[in-house]
Structures are given as C-alpha cells and as structure tokens.
Amino acid sequence: MKTQSPDTSIEAEKVQIAGLQRMQPAEKLARVVEFNEAILQLARARILMKYGSDLSEREVRLRLASLWLDRETMVRAFGWDPKIEGY
User: Fold this and answer.
1) SS3 6
2) Are 67 and 86 spatial neighbours (Cβ–Cβ below 8 Å)?
3) 3 within domain boundaries
4) C-alpha pair distances (Å), 11 with each of 2, 3, 4, 19, 60
5) CA distance 29 to 3
6) With pLDDT > 90 as the criterion, what percentage of the chain qualifies?
7) Domain range for 29
8) Are 13 and 4 spatial neighbours (Cβ–Cβ below 8 Å)?
9) By CB neighbour count within 10 A (0-12 exposed, 13-18 middle, 19+ buried), where does 46 fall?
10) What is the pLDDT of residue 43?
11) Of 15, 25, 64, 85, which one is least surrounded by beta carbons within 10 A?
12) Is residue 61 part of a domain?
C-alpha cells in the first residue's frame, strides 16, 4: 500500500482515514471551510509580505482573486491585469 502523501506513514494515514470516516458530513464540511480560510490567510500574508502592508483592502482582495481566477476574467470583471499588476 502506498500513502497519499510521501511524508505520511501507512499507519498514520489509516488513523487519519478512520477519523474522517467517523465524522458526520457537517463536520467534514466545517473542516473544509476551516482549511479554505487558512489557505486564504496564508495567501493574504504572502501578498502583504511581497507588496507591503500598506495595500488597500481592495488591492489585497484583487490580488487574492487573481490567484484563483484566470487573467481574462480578472481583466473583464475587475479591470485588473495580473500580468501588469502582479498577482
């Protein structure tokens, strides 16, 4: 058997899967929401480190959006070109 992640042992993955199987659907969804929020916070921190903490909230949100949306959508929807402005 091979694990989903090269840095996780088979035993650890079995414990993890068993824990996930015991969770109710609402608990699983809550965990996904928590992970997504953590990812957004990490991305926000990366943007602030790269471009400075004096960015407006709008600019931070545009840069965050450009991490998930393609260039054409960003330009069409927000008038923001990640190729010019950076992500």
Assistant:
1) coil
2) no
3) no
4) 11, 9, 12, 13, 41
5) 23
6) 89
7) 10-85
8) yes
9) middle
10) 97
11) 25
12) yes
pLDDT at 87 over 90: no
Total number of domains in the chain: 1
Q: Tokens standing for 47?
A: 């943007």
Indicate whether this model's pTM tops 0.85.
no
Phi first, then psi: give them for residue 54, nearest 5 degrees.
-95, 10
8 Å CB contact between 14 and 2? no
- Please check whether residue 42 lies inside any domain of the structure: yes
Q: What is the pLDDT of residue 68?
A: 94
- Per-residue model confidence (pLDDT) at position 1: 72
CA 76 – CA 62 distance, rounded (Å): 13
Is residue 44, in this structure, part of any structural domain at all? yes
